[in-house]
Specification:
Strand content: 15-25%
Structural class: alpha+beta
Shape: rod-shaped
Order of helices and strands: HEEEEH
Helix content: 40-55%
Bound molecules: zinc ion
Distance between the termini: 93 Å
Number of helices: 2
């Protein structure tokens, strides 16, 4: 009976290997790069005070704004 037991063990190892391979390969497809970096510099809007990521902020003369609309409003009242 030793040979049959060996075949069963081999089959179980093969199935386990397939399961592990599936578990390792499937999350990789869903894994996308994070849209926002946690350590990205945050800019405070001079108009409303909201914090926006540096790449989304509108900058003007060292001031930062969450939107072009707030940049326009701020400049209307401060220049
Ligand atoms: Zn704003």
């Amino acid at each position: 009976m030793g040979l049959i037991r060996l075949l069963i063990i081999a089959a179980l190892i093969y199935i386990a290997w397939r399961v592990v391979k599936n578990l390792l390969s499937s999350p990789r497809q869903a894994d996308r790069p994070a849209p926002k970096q946690q350590n990205e510099l945050m800019r405070k809007c001079a108009q409303c005070g909201v914090h926006v990521p540096d790449h989304e902020a509108f900058s003007h003369n060292g001031k930062h704004f969450c939107s072009q609309e707030h940049q326009r409003l701020y400049l209307e009242h401060h220049e």
